[in-house]
Specification:
By secondary structure, the protein is mainly beta. Helix content is 0%, strand content 35%. The chain is globular and about 25 Å long.
């Protein structure tokens, strides 16, 4: 399981199967950003992760749509 930590760079790499995924989020696929508010206590796959997307503001995404980029 991937641990999402504040400050890590991520890519929104695919559409999520989670019910929290909304159609407007499709436009973020392929974008990169920095995690600003992870779920650090339990890292629950059902919780959304807040990401500051490069040039597109801050949004919350399901964890299965994110991929940690190498530092």
């Amino acid at each position: 399981m991937v641990i999402f930590r504040k400050g890590r760079r991520v890519a929104i790499f695919r559409k999520s199967d989670d019910e929290a995924w909304e159609s407007y989020m499709d436009s973020f696929i392929g974008s990169h950003g920095i995690i600003t508010d992870p779920d650090t206590t339990k890292n629950d796959p059902d919780d959304l992760v807040e990401v500051s997307v490069d040039g597109k503001g801050t949004h919350r995404f399901p964890q299965d749509s994110l991929k940690v980029l190498e530092d």
